[in-house]
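Hi everyone,

Forwarding the result from last night's run.
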Amino acid sequence: MSAGHKRIAELLDRWQASVELHSRYLDLDDAAYAKVQDWPRHQRPTRWIVGLARSRLQDLQRQLADREAKRDDGYAESLELMSFLTTLLGSGHIDRYIPEATAAAPASEPSAAGTACPAVEKRAGTDPATTIRPRPSIEPRGPKPRPSRTPPAAASAAKVEKPPKPDKAAATVIADAARLLSWGREWPQLAGLIARLADRPPEQAVWAILRTHRAAIEARARRVPD
């Protein structure tokens, strides 16, 4: 198996696993679905969309296996190039897509508790119109106590530690993220887009790098020329 075939096969396997997880989430209500994992903003995929994605993935996997048997390495390279170009050129910012689901879910998987709705735009309990807000406390009259000064030792301990120096893989991910941000991509999209590129870490590892070096990435994105 060529390197290109291997990369495309691994990508299709990840998508297939994600679709199978989404098929199990179809019977969850919106609150349970929102707790499965930290979803990016999206419209919740319907049963028809999940089924269509599964059938098209199976078709593409069969075609890839057939081309591999014929030693057609150019087919996998064309698929990889098309995926990369679609990320850069063809895909605008959309909410209607199937976000990649991973098996790293909570220890106890949520149970079905109602009918799935067609869209999930916000997490449960975050709607400002329905959230119960505490009443402001009334401060007693009189002289206010002076704020205590923080000792220098405690102040230095409260400082946020600097992120570690990135290795080669992390530096590549940081450069990719800064470039995609400068091109108009949003933060929740970055890990999925970068993980699809050749010779990049898995999506969970990309997320860890993005969280650790977010400040450096955003600062670098402002300096990247168009």
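Residues 105-109, 111-138 have pLDDT under 50 and may be disordered.

Cheers,
N.
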